[in-house]
Amino acid sequence: MNAPRHTPAPDGATATTTARKLRMRYVGIGLWMAFTWCGEGNAPAWEHALRTLVILLILPPLLLRANRHLTHKLYESARPGRIIAQLITARIAAVTIAFGAGFLLGHLLDPQAARSPVLPALGFLLLLASIPAQIRHAHRTRTATTHPATQPALSAPRLIATKLTLITTALLAQLLLTPYLPDATFAVAAALFLTTATLGPKAHHRFLLTDPAPTNEQAAHAPT
């Protein structure tokens, strides 16, 4: 196990870097939500909403649990290579399961619809292209001065509730816009992206759990 590390006092540069990373994270989340909403092309608005709902009900819990568990192991492991591989594999599996479920749902709702494989293939290629960045981030996490368990954790229920609100609003907006706007799907997707990228960083603290998650050692010794 790594030796205890001491946390230095945060400075202005660190705070700026953290804020920039947070903004980029929500830009990525906004792109993901817009991409998901556009996935079925000209499908009815309720199909967009239902498929997106299924994906977000599956993806955040899987990703957050895998990230929390494996990031703790990564920080404490003397040989991180295998843990990093497990972490990346778990992320790819979670995304594949969630989007696979969304694709299957779309097929069940409308079996006769012609679906282009371009968007799913592009999404999977982008996911694979992110592997080098994930490896770099994992190594930076390992060399951080604070254990991940000492930091507030994201709450899947709070994230899901917020996304439910966004999807409900997007559904109502598309229903209202469709008679007047031929490309209502893409307009709503753009609005989802802008809303998430703009308001996400400001509301981020509301998604955090006040009590940090326990380390693997603490969990192993917890009473049952």
Outline the structure in words.
This protein has helices spanning 12-37, 45-76, 81-109, 118-129, 131-142, 156-177, 184-203, 216-221. The chain contains 8 helices and no strands. Helix 2 packs antiparallel against helix 3 (81-109), helix 2 runs antiparallel to helix 6 (156-177) and helix 6 (156-177) runs antiparallel to helix 7 (184-203).
List keywords for this structure.
about 220 residues; mainly alpha; disordered N terminus; disordered C terminus
Element-by-element helix/strand order: HHHHHHHH
Shape descriptor: globular
Number of helices: 8
Beta-strand fraction estimate? under 5%
Number of strands: 0
Secondary structure: helix percent:
over 70%
Question: Could you name the ranges where pLDDT drops below 50 across 5 or more consecutive residues?
Answer: 1-10, 211-224
| Rg for CA atoms | 19 Å
Indicate the topology.
Layout lengths: L11 H26 L7 H32 L4 H29 L8 H12 L1 H12 L13 H22 L6 H20 L12 H6 L3
Helix pairs in contact: 1-7, 2-3, 2-6, 6-7
Summarize the structure.
With 224 residues, this protein is mainly α. It has helices at residues 12-37, 45-76, 81-109, 118-129, 131-142, 156-177, 184-203, 216-221. Mean pLDDT is 76; it is low at 1-10 and 211-224.
